[in-house]
Structures are given as C-alpha cells and as structure tokens.
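seq as requested:
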Amino acid sequence: MAAQSGYGQFCPVAMAAEILGSRWTIPVLRELLCGSRRFNELRKGVPRMSPALLSQRLRDLEHAGIVRREQTLSGGPEYRLTEAGEDLRGVVENIGSWGQRWIDAEISLRNLDASLLMWDMRRRIDPKPIPVPRAVIQFLYPDQTRSRQRWWLIIDNGTVDLCSVDPGFDVDLYVRSDLRTMTRIWMGLATVAAEEQAGNLLLTGDPALKRTAQQWLGFSVFAAQQKGNGANVAVRSRNPVAGARE
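struct tokens:
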C-alpha cells in the first residue's frame, strides 16, 4: 500500500496515513472492531464495497500487521485484529465522534442505506428491556425498493438475528417509517416518541414492546455525541456506486 501512495515523510502521522488512508480502510476497521470476523459479515457492514476491493483491503491490513487471517475448523477463514489493530480502537472511535459532532446532519442523511442501518441496529439492540424471552419485530420502509422494504429482527434469549426475508414467525411488533426517519432516530437526532407524535413513525403490536422501544432499539455508538456549535463541515460528494469499484 505504501509503495503505491507513499508520502515520502518520516513523520508518524504520514506513515500511519499511508496504511489507513486508502478508500474503505477505516470502515473495514470499524467492522472488525465491532466484532465482524467472517468475510460475509464484513460485507454486510460495507454493502457498497465490492468483494474484490474488500479482499484487497484485508490483504493490505494483513500485510501491515493489523489483521491476521485464521483458518477455522469449519473451513472458512476468519479475520482478527492483532494487538496493533486493537490499538486503533480509540482512533476509529475518535474519528466517528468527530464526524457525529462536526459533520452537518443533513449531509450525513444523504447517504441512506437500509441494509447498513439494519445491520448496525442488529448488533446494538439491547435485549434487557424487552419484556418477553423471544420477540419478532418487523421493520417496513415503504419508500425503499421492494427488496429493501421489509426486515425482521428476532430477539431470542439475548441473541439478535436479522432477516431480509420472512422468517415465518408471528410478528410481535410492526415498525413502519421512512428510512430517513429511522436513520435520524438511530443517529440520536430524533426520538421514538417525537417521530411517533409527528406521524413519521408507526408502532403496531405488543404494548410493552411499543412502550420500551426507545430503550431496546439499537442506537449508534455515537448517538450520545452532541453536535458542535454550527456543525457544518462539508464532505466532498462521491458517486457511491463508482466509489465501490475504486
């Protein structure tokens, strides 16, 4: 990686940027730090990234000593962070906190992605406030294409699964909203109660699940970060489809 885009400076900032500055590297690290281990799990966290580019970035990180590839008994490889990789946790978290604090929310909300939102929600759901051992919650986004409209979260004794096809279970709670509204709630820019009162969010089903939705719903780890005064940092516009092939 360094040979392709080296800065030619001994400064540690420049040297680190040679490894971490390639497109998609930081989001891949975010997924690894969030616990994704297998290739298909990583793909769910970076759905707009091509499989070929993901493979290349993993090889780059392995070469840099940040990731190690381990063969499992089931036959498929797993990717785990080395000590150097784990040491990047604070770096990635600080980048996310800076983005939440200083990048204008309207700019962030131009990049809506149902699959990424639901994948993030799945791993951030808090099962403790859910009043029953197993709950099936269906999310409906009428403004999305047919293949991305319906999602099911299945919470069963503390574990959470995500389905994009009907799992065949009775649904305990239906959640209906446009994708922008649910993303705003996920990012901590709005609340369940406020969006429900405004008519942007409809919850239908188990009263206890409805009542505790603000508690169990999976929120971004950065949702509590307060916006800076006049947060309006501009982000260069990119074509997400073209970017995925870079």
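Strands lie at 67-71, 77-81, 134-140, 150-156, 159-163, 173-177, 201-205.
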